[in-house]
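[recover] target loaded
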């Protein structure tokens, strides 16, 4: 059973971000397909990946001075995920399943909103993912989300 399928509608055209998002979908599907015995192992893999995913975007945002609301959303989601992880470990398997059901809708919304705005901005300023440098520092910040 999978929680969600990767589709072109999730693609933002920024390779490093799209690659990470594909892995996010894979990790989520691993959780969805895990039996009770392996759920926490899949959950931990998902958490590890999601922390790296969010940290990567947070670093890009810090490098280009992107507004903090996107990072705050990452922090909120990680708090919920860690809380659910604790409760699953204490025996509340249902809550883990509910999280798996909720995450696809959240991800579609987040990728299509905050991540899309960040991808557009990184592209507009000519952000170099190798060096972390901005090639066009005078580009406008119009695409940044309003916090
Ligand atoms: Fe993302
Ligand atoms: Fe994000």
């Amino acid at each position: 059973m999978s929680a969600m399928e990767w589709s072109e509608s999730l693609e933002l055209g920024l390779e490093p971000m799209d690659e990470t998002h594909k892995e996010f979908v894979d990790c989520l599907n691993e959780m969805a397909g895990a039996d009770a015995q392996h759920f926490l192992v899949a959950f931990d893999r998902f958490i590890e990946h999601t922390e790296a995913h969010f940290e990567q975007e947070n670093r890009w945002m810090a490098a280009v001075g992107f507004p903090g609301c996107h990072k705050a959303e990452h922090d909120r989601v990680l708090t919920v995920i860690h809380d659910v992880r604790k409760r699953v470990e204490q025996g509340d398997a249902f809550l883990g399943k509910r999280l798996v059901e909720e995450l696809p809708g959240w991800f579609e919304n987040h990728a299509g909103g905050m991540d899309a705005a960040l991808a557009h901005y990184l592209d507009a300023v000519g952000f170099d993912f190798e060096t972390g440098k901005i090639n066009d520092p005078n580009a406008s910040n119009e695409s940044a989300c309003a916090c």
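[recover] notes: Residues 57, 70, 74, 110, 114-115 surround fe (ii) ion (ligand 2) (CB under 6 Å).
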